[in-house]
Amino acid sequence: MDPAVVFAARPALARKTRVDVLLALLVGYAALLPFEWGVENMLRFSAADVALILALFFAVSRLRYRPENWSVWHYSLLALFAFSTLSVAARAGELQRYVYLNKDDGLVALFLAYAFLNSALASWTRIRLVLRAFVISVVLQNLVGLGAWVASTRFGIDSMFVWDNGLRLGGLMGDANAYGGLLATALVICEGACTGREPLFKNSFLYFARVTLAAGLLVSFSRTAWISLGLVFLFLLLTRFETAIRGLFLLLCGAAVTVILMGRSFLALFEDLAFRPEVATGNGRTRVDLVSTGLQSFSRHPFFGTGIGSFFAQQGSIEHNSAVWFLTEFGLVGLVIFCGFLGWFFLKARSAYRRAPIPQKPIVFGVTLGFIAMAGMSLGIEAFYQRHWWLTFALIAASNSVALRQRRPRLFVPAGFIPSISRRAVHG
After folding, report:
1. Which residues are 45's β-sheet partners?
2. Could you tell me which of 314, 310, 313, 315 has the C-alpha nearest to residue 326?
3. What's phi and psi for 36, nearest 5 deg?
4. Between β-strands 162-163 and 168-169, what pairing exists: parallel, antiparallel or unpaired?
5. Residue 355 and residue 346 in contact, taking contact as beta carbons nearer than 8 Å
6. What's the rounded Cα separation, in Å, for the pair 79 and 65?
7. According to the 3-state scheme, what is the secondary structure of 216-257?
8. Domain range list for the chain
9. Is 43 a residue whose pLDDT tops 90?
10. 386-407 average pLDDT score
């Protein structure tokens, strides 16, 4: 064989191998995302972090900066955290471990994951693979969790999947509300992305996922997740009425299956947990109390807030509302940046949907529904650091980027020009 041919083939083979490794790590990140574990001081890790570290180690040379995936709001967010951290450190003379480990390092990790995803999600095929891996992983964990919940409520067998004395399904997210948000995100992605000529999943798996995810969402007894799902259905009623009605019917089917399997005892359990008193912290303070305290702190420091981590240091709890957290600790400046950050992704989702090819529009729509679901979750929990919300951020930006790269320039044709051409063609 010609040596030149061998020399040319080897680099091509090497490039293909690197792409395969990057793709495997990308899919692995999405599949491992729902599996988390906690350590002291409210710090949580995900199995997906391992895939992220491996990707940064083996594929750092393949990371690409795509300007269309970043905005002034991204950089403003980083600057806001840096400024507030330095201000708190200068004022107090020290920096709490909670601030630099949970808040600052956590934000850096999320930005690294966002950069990795937007570098690797370079085609519709990869976007679909990531969505499939994420949804399948959530469904599989939820199946195990449902079994663990039945074992706990029926036979008193405790496990890591159940919370609140074994009565609420919490999965491996460390919190039943966070787990409810995860299930709601996966469920609405299925509803939005499984339509059209090229659905994300075929009907057999789709119906199975819908019913089991709805059942898991029900027994998580996360009222915040239920409210966020209601916001998604309100959006669907305004945009796709038939999808909203079908989704509501399947939710009721999932609830009916759960009631039939559990019997009358489930109705009493549902009444106790669904209408339980609202308690957000161990000291008995409700979410309303925490939000009220946060707003009082904001009134004393309206422009730049009380400083990052100050609310937790004073109250021993977080605000359980992302917007109020930004308002309390970062002031009006922080709230504007937070709202601008979310608004940028919503506009990019709209842009991606308009530019995407017809077979890919349901994919963009499904990711948008996941984004809206997590925005609803942020009203009742601290959702800003939820990794699956940042996954929807990256998928929205990547969808818009792919749609922009695939768009072809259109020739401007004045009105009335095409008919004149047609007449000339007909008459020679």
Report:
1. 37
2. 310
3. -125, 160
4. antiparallel
5. no
6. 19
7. HHHHCCCHHHHHHHHHHHHHHHHHCHHHHHHHHHHHHHHHHH
8. 68-407
9. no
10. 94
